[in-house]
UniProtKB/TrEMBL annotation:
<dbReference type="Pfam" id="PF06445">
    <property type="entry name" value="GyrI-like"/>
</dbReference>
<dbReference type="InterPro" id="IPR029442">
    <property type="entry name" value="GyrI-like"/>
</dbReference>
<feature type="domain" description="GyrI-like small molecule binding">
    <location>
        <begin position="27"/>
        <end position="202"/>
    </location>
</feature>
<dbReference type="InterPro" id="IPR011256">
    <property type="entry name" value="Reg_factor_effector_dom_sf"/>
</dbReference>
<protein>
    <recommendedName>
        <fullName>GyrI-like small molecule binding domain-containing protein</fullName>
    </recommendedName>
</protein>
Length: 218
């Protein structure tokens, strides 16, 4: 178990799928993990549903963390926000960037030692305090992505298009793979604090294999 300088468990340092390199596409198998989830639709910059989801995920995630520290003596760093994104036309991610057509699920990783009952107690605590507008839409659920391709994008979110195009149209078919499942992003940078050109985002795409062999390209 990885423990940081603060004595807190660093979940994302224990799991290989939370590591990625800029300019490198890697094929890997992502293990099943449990997440807090809230669904929604629309442009994340303007959709009220997105802001409500963020305003709900974080309070529950931090309530879980404090309960784990207080009741179990097991403190940890709250994992970064993540999102699943999809559209009927995948070009809305690479070419047109028409965010109004995006459907999404916001995620927050739940440590394996916490149970669904722990999540429900955290939900009740947050509900008692008010101010979590999407609490009725929040659930805890396992996600098993299996075989995936991922890379690290550094820079503004709106500059992801060329990286995704290279992943979807060049690397994945070139490896004898095909897209399946839902585009996944892991936000290692905080847009409230980091400059846009320094934001770090893991871009992940589940795939299915047509040929045998796995390798990384630089």
């Amino acid at each position: 178990m990885t423990v940081g300088p603060s004595g807190k468990t660093a979940l994302t340092e224990e799991i290989d799928s939370y590591r990625a390199r800029r300019g490198v596409f890697v094929v890997l198998t992502v293990p099943p993990m449990r997440y807090l989830m809230v669904d929604g639709h629309g442009d994340p910059n303007t959709a009220r549903a997105y802001q409500e989801a963020v305003s709900t995920i974080y309070p529950v995630a931090y309530t879980l963390k404090f309960a784990s520290r207080r009741e179990l003596g097991h403190d940890y760093v709250v994992p970064p926000l993540e999102g699943l994104w999809w559209s009927d036309d995948m070009d809305t991610f690479t070419d047109s960037r028409d965010k109004s057509r995006w459907t999404w699920t916001l995620l927050s990783l739940v440590p394996q030692w916490l149970t669904d009952a722990d999540v429900e107690r955290a939900r009740a605590t947050v509900a008692g305090k008010g101010g979590a507008p999407a609490l009725d839409r929040l659930r805890v659920q396992s996600l098993d992505e299996g075989l995936c391709v991922q890379t690290l994008h550094v820079g503004p979110y709106d500059d992801e298009g060329p990286v995704l195009r290279a992943m979807h149209d060049e690397f994945i078919p070139g490896e004898g793979l095909a897209l399946t499942g839902t585009h996944h992003e892991i936000y290692l940078g905080d847009p409230r604090r980091a400059r846009p050109d320094r934001l770090r985002t893991i871009l992940r795409q589940p795939v299915t294999r047509h040929t045998i062999g796995t390798r990384a390209h630089s």
